[in-house]
């Protein structure tokens, strides 16, 4: 039986998924992936869309090792698409992979799929580098997101109107460090937003 989940930070509203639930979900994904690409000796490349997918990337790499996939390498693709709680125009890649992925099995990891625009941008960018196989995974997918093409795997589905934080997902740089995933406390966020946007008095000399 799950323990009652109580927010521990003013920015957290309703907790949707606890740390234990997240890790169990990722372990389940690792088993699905192991069945999909097996336990061959060639490295499997995990590519996380930064910054939000970093915890997901690390925990999935550990889960794959436990599942019996011996060779996992990781890399990062930095894409910018959000400011605050609103999309900020077209996704922009501002830091590319460091390793070659041509003729390799690549697993693309997203923290959350909203409209699918970031996923589509990342997917097209990686396909242009000719991987042998590209598998797309998201920790969270919004209900009715309908990315095109669809995700290969998702761990959890969340309400279409919920802005969530925690486990890598942030609001203006806050909340990434939380080990659970919760709906943002909008009242607290409004207070903080006024604080960050208010003009600062010049320091006294």
Quaternary status? single chain
> What percentage of residues falls in helices of 4 or more residues?
25-40%
Low-confidence stretches: 198-205
Sheet of most strands = 6 strands, mixed
| Total beta strand runs | 9
> Could you state the order of secondary-structure elements as H and E?
EHEHEEEHEEEEH
Q: N- to C-terminal separation?
A: 59 Å
Overall structural class, as computed from helix and strand content, comes to alpha/beta
Looking at the structure, what is the overall shape?
globular
Number of helices: 4
Strand content: 25-35%
Rg, nearest Å: 18 Å
Mean pLDDT: 82
**What is the spatial order of strands in the main beta sheet?**
4-3-2-5-6-7
Describe the protein's topology.
Layout: E1 12-17, H1 19-37, E2 44-50, H2 54-67, E3 72-83, E4 86-95, E5 105-113, H3 117-127, E6 133-142, E7 153-158, E8 164-165, E9 181-184, H4 186-197
Parallel strand pairs: 2-3, 2-5, 5-6, 6-7
Antiparallel strand pairs: 1-9, 3-4, 8-9
Labels describing this entry:
205 residues, three-stranded antiparallel β-sheet, six-stranded mixed β-sheet, alpha/beta, 4 helices, 9 strands
Give a quick rundown of the structure.
The protein has helices at 19-37, 54-67, 117-127, 186-197, and strands at 12-17, 44-50, 72-83, 86-95, 105-113, 133-142, 153-158, 164-165, 181-184. With 205 residues, the chain is an alpha/beta fold. Helix 2 (54-67) links the parallel strand 2 (44-50) and strand 3.
